[in-house]
Amino acid sequence: MAEDLTPTSAARAGSDSVPSNAVNISIKHLYKIFGPNPSKHLAAVQQGMSKQELRDVHGHVLGLRDINIDMPGGGIQVVMGLSGSGKSTLIRHINRLIEPTAGELWAGDQNVIAMNPRELRHFRRERTAMVFQNFALFPHLTVQENTEYGLQVQHVQHKKRSEAAARWIERVGLKGYEDSYPNQLSGGMQQRVGLARALTNDAPILLMDEAFSALDPMIRSDMQSVLLDLQQELGKTIVFITHDLEEALRLGDRIAILRDGEVIQQGTGQQIVLKPADDYISSFIKDVNRGRVIRCRTLMTPGITVDGPSVDASMVLEEVARVLSAEGKDAANVTNSRGKLLGSITMNDLIAAMVPPKAEEAT
């Protein structure tokens, strides 16, 4: 697989390291079988029993099969797939809203699977926060009260939680709506309240299950921008569930694609676009604008300098092409965030990489 070159969210912010409190999430050999006696069928599933046989012959449903994902702290891990792929089941294992049939799940050095009820309550209240697709706001509470709710459950004193909530309400663009009720807000505004509530909790792990899927396209794009801006500042470990590839490519530092409860491919957006694992992944990416995904470090010629402008190694090809066009040059020098020369890239390199394989063959 290609080298992982997509910067983490901390790098997007211009930082050389992730926040000191960032929490890695490690999922190892995770299985979930739904039914009255899942452990009875675990060995057969581990040995390759199909999802259909498990359902038709044994009356159980396979939710997840042998999931192994390492989610770097301080970055955005996107998990995507079609309906029924297991992505929402997976995210609910991270805070154990769903109990696994087998496997390991670590948040930093904490074994989530081994937590007792008291430890799990603490983990859910103070180490994780969740944003849902359907907003999950309390209709009888105001924006201010909804945003404070997580801290209220933690018994934080009123003044402190009120100040924290007000700060995040303003950060998500809802200042002036503190006394409004959810039914007085648009869908996008309601989701901003949900995001503010999660951020007020100040948890290092943010779980977002199809958080923007119910929004209109323009509002959805706006919320994606809000999330990226906030992530540059905060550097949380975010697990983001979506069925939309464009959203995954825009948000994800890393992406895992699920099908029928299994990980088909994982890596950076450009790795998936450049080297799809199979026809299923190829069908996902066939209409992707490669110029908005592939970064110039992937294509540069190391150590060679040219007579041209300098571009950052993390820039996507479309941005580099704009720089070259504006400068009237056909090549650029590639540097890292500190200005150190890494190599160079030509306009011909850009054009060749942005043409999809089928188009290349036809040419």
Which shape, going by the Cα principal axes?
globular
From the 3D structure, determine the CATH topology of the largest domain. Rossmann fold
Name of the CATH homologous superfamily of the largest domain: P-loop containing nucleotide triphosphate hydrolases
Give the spatial strand order of the biggest sheet.
6-7-8-3-9-10
Annotation field: number of helices:
16
Number of strands: 14
CATH class of the largest domain: Alpha Beta
Strand content is 15-25%
CATH architecture of the largest domain: 3-Layer(aba) Sandwich
Major sheet characteristics: 6 strands, mixed
Output the radius of gyration: 22 Å
Helix/strand/pairing class, anyone? alpha/beta
CA-to-CA gap between the ends? 27 Å
Counting structural domains, the number is 2
Percent helix: 40-55%
Task: Walk me through the topology.
Blueprint: H1 9-12, E1 25-34, H2 38-46, H3 51-58, E2 61-71, E3 76-80, H4 87-94, E4 102-107, E5 110-111, H5 117-127, E6 128-131, H6 143-153, H7 158-171, H8 187-200, E7 205-209, H9 217-234, E8 237-242, H10 245-251, E9 254-259, E10 262-267, H11 269-274, H12 279-285, H13 296-299, E11 301-302, E12 310-312, H14 317-327, E13 331-335, E14 341-346, H15 347-354, H16 357-362
Helix pairs in contact: 6-7, 6-8, 7-8, 14-15
